[in-house]
Amino acid sequence: MTEDVTRIHVIFDLERERLTARKFLHEMADQNWPVTVTGASKREDLDPKHKEVVVIERMRAAKVALVLVTPMSGVSRNVNEEVKFAKRANLNLVGVLVAGSTAHTNLPDGLHRSRVVGWDWGALKKELMPKRDD
Fold first, then answer.
1. How far apart are CA 9 and CA 15, in angstroms?
2. For residue 41, is pLDDT > 70?
3. Distance CA 67, CA 40 (A)
4. 95-122 mean pLDDT
5. Whether the predicted pLDDT of 133 surpasses 60
6. Is the pLDDT confidence value at 60 over 70?
7. DSSP code of 34?
């Protein structure tokens, strides 16, 4: 049922972590969760005045913004910008520590440490999957 599918938008550091994002998404697909990736970070040559509107509109297809937190994502311009856009699109923000990041890694502005988990499929599933009565 489509109501049970969690729609996510993936945010990652475009400058340094494209391969990490690809690996993460491949492994996530292997989990066979009811998850659909509706969008992800991508390079766009848009006028800054229009970029926010375009990206937020695209993000609204999702319910959750999944931020791949790397050692440099706290200073990544595109990650910080997209986290800000995700908040404006009213998405739930969830972070996952990847690529050598730790509990002490600087987070992008707007991503709360209590919503960040390690690259642990069980912990991530609890953050992404809606609560179900079994």
1. 18
2. yes
3. 10
4. 91
5. no
6. yes
7. S
> Would you state the pLDDT for residue 1?
42
Q: What is the total residue count of the chain?
A: 134
As given in the structure block, the two tokens for residue 53 are 């509107």
| Torsion angles phi and psi, residue 12, rounded to 5 | -150, 165
Contacts of 31 (CB under 8 A, 6+ apart): 121, 125
Give 35-53 as a DSSP string: EEEEEE-------HHHHHH
What is the C-alpha separation between 85 and 65, in angstroms, rounded? 10
Please answer whether residues 74 and 97 qualify as being in contact, where contact means their C-beta atoms are separated by less than 8 angstroms.
Answer: no
Full-model pTM: 0.88
Residue 8's DSSP bridge partners are 37, 64
- Residue spans per domain, the chain: 2-128
List, edge to edge, every strand of the sheet that includes 64-69.
Answer: 35-40, 6-11, 64-69, 92-97, 116-118
Give the class (CATH, top level) of 2-128. alpha beta
**What is the structure's pLDDT at 100?**
87
